[in-house]
Amino acid sequence: GQRLALAFGCLSTLGLLASATGLTYVLRKYERLPRVELSGVLDEEVETGEPENYLIVGVDNAAGLPGSDPVHIGRDPTLHSDTIMILRTDPASRRAALLSLPRDLFVPIPGTGTSRRINIAIEQGGAPLLIRTIGENFGIPIHHYVQVNFAAFRGLVDAIDGVPIYVPRPAR
Predict the structure, then answer these.
(1) Is 122 buried (19+), middle (13-18) or exposed (0-12) by CB count in 10 A?
(2) What is the pTM of this model?
(3) What are the two backbone dihedrals, phi and then psi, of residue 86, each rounded to the nearest 5 degrees?
(4) Averaged pLDDT for residues 140-153
């Protein structure tokens, strides 16, 4: 009985140490994520268990990459959004839905009095104007905002240890 209790105690200790190590790793990765200040722009927090909307924007920006990286060639420093998606999660039904907005979709841009492509909103007013444009044109409340550029995308790929690409024939 004592040996069984001792073995269980040792295994429990190892499990707790592994969990603590994993949580520390995740927390350190999370703390390194850059933040975009959007106070007063995002819709109010929802009650626990209510649906939430995440605006996911992929921008054509090489900030954060080394200066020698070939991605910098021919790029200007302005933000160009290539991907605009809204992820809606509904904990009650345990479902998620993804809506992709075409970057060339013509919509009225708030505060300009003109209709232009939706990706112009992030160039002219950053994330706040894009969130306002989506809210006013589609009536979709945005609760969270995620922006991914080339450096962040590279970090995501590195976090999963790369994406293997198999080429069946030799290539240059």
Answers:
(1) buried
(2) 0.66
(3) -120, 120
(4) 84
